[in-house]
Amino acid sequence: MRKPDLLIINGRSSLSRMAETPLVYRVAYKISGKGIYRPLVKLVRELGPFEIGVDIGSGYGIAAELIADHFERLYLIDLDQGMAKSAKKRLKDRSNVEVIVTDAKYIPLQDSFADFVYFFDSLHHIPKPQKALLEAIRIIKSHGKLAVFDLDGCHVFAKFISFLERASGIHSRPLGSNVICNLLGENNLVIIRSEVDFFGMFDVLAVKEYHVRQI
Which residues 6+ apart lie within 8 Å of 36 measured at CB? Predict the structure, then answer.
C-alpha cells in the first residue's frame, strides 16, 4: 500500500522558511482528545462521500484520520514540517492521503479542484487569513462546499483564548464571524449554516455557486 506523499514546497521566498509551531501548542495537540473533532466528523458523514477533500492547517492529521474513509483523495496542507511529518506517519496506511507542506495562501492545487475544503481550528493561526480563505475558494469546484470551524474574533471568550495563545508564542488573530461570512458572500459562496456557541466557537458551511456571465 502506497504511503501518503510528503511534498516540500520551496518555490516562493515566503515558503523557504518553514514555520515551527511552539512546543506548548504541539503538546496540547497531542494530548487533546479526538472528541473535539466531532462537529467535523458529523458534517462529513452527513455530506459525504466526497471525491476530493482538502484540509487546510491539518496539523498532526488527527482530523484527517477520522474522516479519510469518506474521501477518494484527501490532501493535507500545513506549513509546519514537524507536524506534516507526524501526520504522514499517523496516516501511513491511508493510501488516499497526500501531505503537502506549503503556505495556506499559496496552495499548489489547480482551480476548481476539490469537492470539500475545510479549516478546523486553523484559520486564526494563519497570517492574513483572508488570503487563505480566498485560496480555499479558488480550489473549490462549482457546487463544492467550504467549512470553517474557528474562533469568532468578536466573541469575548474567543478573544481571551486568542490572548492566551499569543502569550504562549502562537500566532492567533481570529476574524469575526461576520467578516468571514461577508467575504464568502462576496466571492460567490452561499452560506448554508452559520453558528456561534457559548464559548465563541464559530462554524460555517457554505456552497460555491456557479454564475453564468450575462452578455
Answer: 121
Q: Is the pLDDT of residue 24 over 70?
A: no
Domain 6-11+19-208 has CATH 3.40.50.150: yes
Is the separation of the CB atoms in 175 and 129 below 8 Å? Answer: yes
Single pTM value for the model: 0.85
Full DSSP string of the chain = -PPPPEEE--SSGGGSS-B---HHHHHHHHHS-GGGGHHHHHHHHHH--EEEEEEET-TTSHHHHHHGGGEEEEEEEESBHHHHHHHHHHTTT-TTEEEEES-TTS--S-TT-EEEEEEES-GGGSSSHHHHHHHHHHHEEEEEEEEEEEE-TTSHHHHHHHHHHHHTT----PPPHHHHHHHHHHTTEEEEEEEE-TTSEEEEEEEE---PPP-
Q: Chain-wide mean pLDDT for the chain?
A: 87
- Residue 53, SS3 per DSSP: strand
Name the residue ranges covered by the structural domains of the chain.
6-11+19-208
Asked if 174 and 187 touch (Cβ cutoff 8 Å), the reply is no
Site of grid cell 475545510: 118
Is the dihedral angle over the CA atoms 183, 184, 188, 191 positive or is it negative? negative
C-beta atoms surrounding 169 within 10 Å: 12
Once rounded to an integer, what is the mean pLDDT over residues 5-21?
Answer: 44
